[in-house]
Amino acid sequence: MIAQANVNIELDNKSIEQYIQKRIDVQIDESLFLVDVETLSKKCSMSRRFLEEEFLKDPRFKLIEKTKVRKRFYYWEEAKRVIEEIIEEW
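RESULT FIELD:
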């Protein structure tokens, strides 16, 4: 007679969701080319108002800004670099 083995697996759904979301965010970061103000706000976890006051008025941000019909776009990699520079000055 073959012995039976019982295996119990407990999964933490919240941890699994966080892991999956982190992996998705990494993939999105690698594929982003241009971002708008709304996307910057979400990616930086900052309100649009705070982003406007602390970052987007900075001359370094104005240099990388691309506009088209009242819409502002930024190259994602350059925007990240400028944000890091500004934060380092705080």
